[in-house]
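4.2 Preliminary Data

To establish feasibility before requesting continued support, the project team ran the inverse folding procedure on a target of 74 residues. The structure was first converted into the token representation described in Section 3, and no sequence information of any kind was made available to the design step. The complete token record follows.
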């Protein structure tokens, strides 16, 4: 993958993370944040295996999935 495309994925990841701070509904926050984390993991892989980017975002992604799956219905 070209470095330019990897940069765009990184920008998209940042956009999703910032957007997750604007939302009020917890379920939407988790979904948007998870998309941002997935983008950061992809960015980390295609930018030269940036482990300090990949590891925490992968963990946060799994935490978001866990909470989305165990969320109690109101």
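Position-by-position output of the design step:
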């Amino acid at each position: 993958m070209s470095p330019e495309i990897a940069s765009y994925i990184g920008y998209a990841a940042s956009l999703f993370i910032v957007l997750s701070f604007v939302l009020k509904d917890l379920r939407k926050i988790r979904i948007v944040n998870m998309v941002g984390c997935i983008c950061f993991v992809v960015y980390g892989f295609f930018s030269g295996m940036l482990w300090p980017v990949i590891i925490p975002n992968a963990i946060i992604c799994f935490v978001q999935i866990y909470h989305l799956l165990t969320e109690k219905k109101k």
